[in-house]
Specification:
This protein is an alpha/beta fold. The termini are far apart.
């Protein structure tokens, strides 16, 4: 399918600068541009590619000042990154959707399957499970007994959703993820450890996206909750009875210990870790490899380091740490001088 610069500008509220009839049928990075492709420029360090790209159309920010003429057609928008995201969503939505139940799928007779659902080969739908309209479930995915899944969800291959869990509408889960495995609950005794049965569930609300090989454990009692709009990257561990607030985003390899509550609109960097039974306030920004071991203050607080601390305190500490070898030499020299004076 082909779109002109004029049509694209109308879709995203942009302003064409150049040939409004320039047409595109694919996307490309600006440094790999080719004829018929749409690219975008939002990071200033890639600006030099604008003058040499072969892409037919490039989305740029309104405030971009050109150093000299370009051969491509520009569409100026308020935010190029947001605009290309919107176009990619439109592009994805017009792709043909699969429907129907593959003859190699196993669907329990008691399961309720909505309209225009796709269930791929070797997928398993358990007893009394409910699948909403337009949901797509790909090969080898297992939906356990009494699981409820909303409409227009997308489940990639090899996902496991344990019994009783609830998933909202427009949820995307990538390959290999496990929703509702037992929380890590064991009580020590004289012979070792006794398993504490995990009888709760996982609740995933609307418009959540979960990356590949991410694990969200069921609660001991009650529910582990992922609120609406949350985006989780690959290889994340969410332990039992945790809660992730609305529109919070987490990068890869984040680990949450049991009963941790993370607020809304938080941003969490890769490999950050949370101790159990703590509360992280709304709009907290947590850096990569940060170790959060206590409740946070809120008010848009930023944290880095382990244990987590204010960035200014952290960098002051790091500056001192780099000087420690020299400081140790000075200390040893002073000790030697003192010993000589005593003699």
């Amino acid at each position: 399918m082909e779109f002109t610069a004029k049509q694209i500008a109308e879709l995203i509220g942009g302003r064409v600068e150049g040939d409004e009839n320039a047409a595109v049928n694919t996307f490309a990075k600006i440094e790999e541009g080719k004829k018929g492709a749409l690219s975008f420029l939002s990071n200033p360090k890639y600006t030099h590619f604008l003058y040499e790209t072969e892409s037919s159309i490039v989305l740029v920010n309104d405030d971009l000042q050109l150093e000299h003429e370009v051969s491509t057609t520009l569409i100026r928008v308020k935010n190029a990154y947001e605009s290309v995201a919107k176009l990619l969503q439109i592009y994805e939505s017009i792709k043909p959707r699969k429907t129907g139940i593959d003859p190699l799928a196993s669907v329990a007779a008691s399961a309720k399957i909505g309209k225009d659902v796709f269930i791929g080969p070797f997928a398993v739908i358990g007893e009394n499970a409910s699948i909403g309209d337009g949901t797509q479930i790909y090969a080898h995915t297992v939906v356990g007994d009494n699981v409820t899944i909303g409409s227009n969800c997308l489940f990639y291959p090899n996902i496991t959703i344990y019994q009783g869990c609830r998933v909202g509408n427009r949820v995307t889960i990538h390959a290999g993820s496990v929703i509702g495995a037992d929380g890590f609950g064991f009580a020590p005794n004289v012979d070792g450890y006794s398993k504490i049965p995990q009888i709760g569930i996982v609740i995933i609300e609307d418009d959540v996206e979960i990356g590949a090989n991410t694990c969200i454990d069921r609660s001991t009692m009650g529910a582990t909750v992922i609120h609406k709009g949350v985006k989780l990257d690959n290889l994340i561990q969410v332990a039992h009875n945790c809660e992730v607030g609305e529109n919070t985003v987490m990068s890869a390899q984040v680990g949450m210990a049991g009963s941790t509550k993370v607020g809304a609109w938080c941003m969490v960097g890769g490999q950050a870790g949370f101790a159990g039974h703590i509360q992280v306030a709304d709009k907290t920004n947590i850096g990569a490899q940060c170790g959060v071991i206590s409740n946070t203050k809120g008010n848009g607080e930023a944290l880095i380091g382990s244990p987590a601390m204010d960035p200014r305190t952290y960098f002051k500490g790091m500056a001192i740490l780099r000087r420690l070898p020299d400081m140790q030499k000075e200390l040893m020299a002073l000790r030697k001088e003192i010993e000589e004076l005593k003699k």
